[in-house]
Amino acid sequence: MVLERDPALEVVDMPINMGPQHPSTHGVFRMVLVVNGEKIVDLVPHIGYMHRGGEKLMEAMDFRQGIGYCDRTEYLAQFSAELAYCLAVERLMDLQVPERAEYIRVILTEMNRLSSHFMFAGAFGVDAGVFATSFTYAFPQREFLQEVFEEVSGDRLMYAYFRVGGLAWEVPDNFVQRVHEVLVHSAQGLKDIDDLLTKNEIFMARCQNIGNFSADQAIAYGLSGPMLRASGVPWDLRKDEPYSVYDRFNFEIPVGNYGDVYDRYLVRMEEMRQSISIIEQALEQLPPDGPIVPEKMPRRLRTPPGEVYAKVEAPRGEWGVYLVSKGGDKPYRLKMRSPSFCNLSALRDMTIGQYLADAVMILGSMDIVLCDVDR
Amino acid sequence: MTAQKAAPPTLPEKQVEGAPVVAPQREQTGIEREAERLTPVPYEPGTALYRQILPGILQVPADAMLALSRKSSLWPMTFGLACCAIEMIATFMSRHDLDRFGIVPWPSPRQSDVMIVSGTGTKKMAPAVKLLYEQMPNPKWVIAMGACATNGGPYTRYDRVVQGVDKIIPVDVYVPGCPPRPEALIDGMLALQHKIMEERNK
Amino acid sequence: MTFQALLDSYLAVFIAAIIGFFLVASALIAARVLAPFSKEKGKSISYECGMLPIGSTRASIPIRYYLFAILFLIFDVEAVFLFPWAVSFGHAGKAAFWEMVLFIGILGAGLGYAWKKGVLQWNK
Amino acid sequence: MTLPEGQEPDATSDPGATPEAAAPAPEVAAETPAKPAAERPVRPAKEAEPKEAPRVAPPAGSINETLAAAAPGVVFNAYMVPEMKGECVTVEVSRDDLTAVMTAARDDERLDLKYLRCLSGVDWQDEGLEVVYHLWSFTKKHSLQVKTRVTYDDANVPSIATIYPAADWHERETRDMFGINFEGHWNLVPLLLPEDMTDHFPLRKDNPLQEIEEWQGENLRDGAGEGDE
């Protein structure tokens, strides 16, 4: 006589819904965690809650109107998105961007990287349990940076300041002096967050050795940016495939060696220091005057038929634009290769086997922007 | 080449006189199934017990006192959808402090009074928005922050976007802007407070 | 301590209990009376981040949570005993001190044993 | 967004440096008072713009020879598009030997294209649907662009999610947007669309944009429109 066990008493894996409205999903991302006690057995990510068809609408807009959608798709690193879009169209039309415009673009993109990483540090602190302290450290620095962006482009968040071929208008006269001021604040803010989080016992215990991803796993899953560099692949588009004038600055690329959550945090912190030094070098080499739009700008932006894949090192990774054009002033097909989308696809294999509390840390370390994921 | 290749309708074999022509039942397309998920939530103010038991003359001060207390401690639910969420967080933070109005961001709908819809309401997110709105306790208000929540904003022509959150939940205050500046959101909050004081005796 | 003094000291406790009761009662009654209730379709659905709840709550919880709960309970009760001792620590005399040290020692040994057996680790 | 006023193009500017672009000569700048129609220069007739991007054979010794060696028995035509600045050789492969090419690209140590950078679908309307793969190699520092084209009614492409795990979500997204069915994909459930919407493909060219609704009066709560002032 075989005693079979009552199925009701069986310890079954419990699905937990970490849904679209959740303080630590950085937006509308939903994942169903199948949990056995504290260990995560399976993870089913659901995205698409912010899919609002940026690519379809950009096909209906000509090249000047499409820039607004780049900002709204990647709304923490707007200048990187605009830069990639402008590089794609400029390379398609073989336009030569004047010197001064290139330098101003680099300065603004690197300042945007600072403000994006400050947002990461603030949000990551909240995930680690330092409830609002890291936010109150990070956001004043973002406000200083946004002040300069507002003086330059007129808007706090949606700049639409880069144009195909250069810039929309001249920067204000005290631009260089304002940027120096803001850099002093940013350096101080970076030091505050560093003192608050990096050497913190509990923070290190929570971050180290979870969500490890080896180098070839990271390459196989198509990760890019700080996620790839934290896994030990020294790959930075600004260094290895230099675009615009990045080859004229010298800066190092921080590379982690374990690929865990703590390395990703350290890589981003080090990247902020490198960005500050890049901005300072760019400010010195900035030609004081000169055109910001090429003289021979055609009145209507018509591109020859063809295709181009332009890529930029955005704070989250490689933000690429695959632009197919059949001639005419509207892109025929425009695919935005967003780094958050590719990094997020690796979340499942990073989180299975970890504890429930670490899933939040791993998701936070990816620094995803949900509109970038769903486009 | 029609986009939705619906299954070809099956023709009834023989037509029996007088028999009602049964419309060929084809399997619902995705869009039709989604239509009933997007039905708007009716606005129900709900009636408080003290309105029945307190005599009329005492209701006026009670309403005034309640409205004053409700308006000066509005707890918004952190419901950051898209780019407007960044401006909403910037408004909560130290420079454009919302705490001075008694506005404390609250993660769960069970204890929050205001739902700030900051971002685009897509059709996939609409059932979640409706459910969260229904789960909020009753004196509740909705602020549609930004152009996307007001009428779809720059994404209004895409067919996966609900053209304005007021098509699914009743909205009280619309804050213009894409994204609205923190001052605009504060102005929206003050307008809501003014509205609460106005509507107290309904 | 005459019976009257005893009664007076318990009077304070009695008054505190009454105030506590009325505080809680007023909060509940105020919510019931003042809040405008409305029976909406989704109001009673349990909150799960905006989604319909999945999985059943009848699923049986792994046994390890029970161990954590018991350990917490033991040391919570220990803390309750520590409070009166800590208050009267100054004039309680030596014996009370060593008695409490013995008490904490026994519980500490229990914790050490549990720690060594790996109860505090979650590894399956 | 108008052109900055300082940069009014003069009438004689030739249209940019792109040789093939037959951009129409811009009209006469408007500073001079409007000339009577008779003297206005007749605009040269616009030559028909080339619809297809000019294709250049890749130089000798480039990546497509190594690919041919690595994946024998696969017929493909390789070309380069000038706009890609000589950086990307494009290989058009038929759908059946796509997996052969992909495994060769990833495993062959001469190619070593371990990184799938981007996978995108393109809807060419009458010429069918096209899937474009961008591959990159970290060690060899070269890139390859692989294209396959399928017709509308049997839009099936073998899935490469097993070869490149990065393609998993890209393929699900391309299926959502274009309806290209990737056979062999382990869970081809809609990713960006609701789970039960498998017959609506938003990014196809014949799927129109939604009309902007006029004032949405009937959906607003009654009395919400009047405002109190």
Describe the structure.
The complex is a heterotetramer of chains A (375), B (202), C (124) and D (229). Chain A has 375 residues and is of the alpha+beta class. Chain A has a single domain (7-374), classed as Cytochrome-c3 Hydrogenase, chain B (Orthogonal Bundle). Chain A has helices at 54-59, 67-73, 78-93, 99-128, 133-153, 175-198, 201-207, 215-220, 226-230, 237-240, 261-285, 339-345, 347-351, 356-366, 370-374, and strands spanning 14-18, 30-36, 39-46, 162-163, 166-167, 306-314, 317-325, 333-337. Chain A has a three-stranded antiparallel sheet with strand order 1-2-3. In chain A, strands 6-7-8 form a three-stranded antiparallel sheet. Chain A has a two-stranded antiparallel ribbon with strand order 4-5. In chain A, helix 4 (99-128) packs antiparallel against helix 5 (133-153) and helix 4 packs antiparallel against helix 11. The mean pLDDT of chain A is 91. Chain B has a domain at 76-201: 3-Layer(aba) Sandwich (Rossmann fold), CATH 3.40.50.12280. Chain B contains seven helices and four strands; from the N terminus they run H-H-H-E-H-E-H-E-H-E-H. Chain B has a four-stranded parallel sheet with strand order 1-2-3-4. Chain C is mainly alpha-helical and 124 residues long. Chain C has helices at 3-34, 64-87, 93-116. The longest helix of chain C has 32 residues, at 3-34. Chain C starts with a helix and ends in an 8-residue tail after the last helix. Chain D has a domain at 63-183: NADH:ubiquinone oxidoreductase Nqo5 subunit (Beta Polymerase, domain 2, 2-Layer Sandwich). Chain D contains three helices and seven strands. Chains A and D meet through helix 1, helix 3, helix 8, strand 6 and strand 7 of A and strand 3 and helix 3 of D.
